[in-house]
Amino acid sequence: MGEFDLIQRYFKSQSHPSADAVPVGIGDDCAVINPTPGMQWLVSSDMLVEGRHFLSTVAPERLGHKALAVNLSDLAACGATPRAFTLALSLPRVDETFLSGFARGLFALAQAHDIALVGGDTTAGPLNICITVMGEVPRGQALLRSGARVGDDVYVSGQTLGDARLALEVFRGQASLASAAEFEQVRRAMECPQPRAQLGLALRGVAHSAIDVSDGLLGDLGHILKASGVGARLDVDALPRSAVLAGQDLALQREYGLAGGDDYELVFTAPSDAAGRAAVAAAAAASGTPVQRIGAIEAEPGLRLHDAAGLALSAAAFSSFDHFKTP
Ligand code: ADP
Ligand code: MG
């Protein structure tokens, strides 16, 4: 099968954007997209490299899901409505089992989030997937890292922070679980993250700042603190965790929750007065997404960790993932 047959069979044939929104999709030199009047466009790319971002053991369908999910997570963090994406794919060979599974996972998630594939690039080479997503927000309403204010509450979404890292450590032989069912549960967290798109939308006008957790909670919250020129204190024991993670020893629970990475939950800050807390609770309920208050923004720069009893813990012990940092 040639390059153009491949594009047609696995990608173009499954992409049917509305002619109003996307008058020209896959097939020309560029896609042509109509912006919604009054909206700003948000653009973000994420690349997945075999051996670095995913293991060769992942099912193609889950890989297709995850490649788009991590990108949708960036749109969610900014409160953007998904509109369109491109897919740049480097493949070692034309493997039809791989391609059909990959496309199935990709388009299932694309449909669920009403986002259209509008173009891309396909080449031979090491397995590498780069997706660029585009979304919209009403002018001036994007949630940014730079908006945190002293006195804000700090929240994190979901109930499985650290599970993806636990799965990775099980694959690496560094952690063990009680049952195959537990393994499947954490493996799903690693391979099938659910982007918090509805929560991100519901937090527009509610949260002061937001980011998605890809490299670990502390590191990603650190980006908010730096961009906003503030600090924070966190209650380490308030971090949500699954029953599976809660079965590991406490030091591992804390490490994976604080610095595990690959979580794709949202960390955000919002006013701590009664109206602010009610608005966050309403956003969580409207989006069907649990959120947990885990700390507060303070004027003093840096992060201060404490446990449920108020005892200080060192933040330096928990480092986030960095591709270019040598241990
Ligand atoms: P060009 O050579 O002009 O860059 P290509 O021949 O690479 O265009 O691609 C032909 C068309 O197919 C373009 O519209 C491009 O956006 C689209 N395309 C290529 N690869 C993919 C892909 N993996 N997914 C979706 N669309 C793709
Ligand atoms: Mg061209």
From TrEMBL:
Positions that bind Mg(2+) 4:
D29, S44, D74
Q: Which residues hold substrate? A: H53, D262, F321
Q: Where does Mg(2+) 2 bind?
A: D46, D74
GO-annotated biological processes = thiamine biosynthetic process; thiamine diphosphate biosynthetic process
Residues that coordinate or bind Mg(2+) 3: D29, D74, D212
Main enzyme class: transferase
PurM-like C-terminal domain residues: 150-306
Instruction: Tell me which residues make up the PurM-like N-terminal domain.
Output: 27-137
Q: Name one Pfam family in it.
A: AIRS
The Gene Ontology terms for molecular function here are: ATP binding; magnesium ion binding; thiamine-phosphate kinase activity
**Role description:** Catalyzes the ATP-dependent phosphorylation of thiamine-monophosphate (TMP) to form thiamine-pyrophosphate (TPP), the active form of vitamin B1.
> What's the protein name?
Thiamine-monophosphate kinase
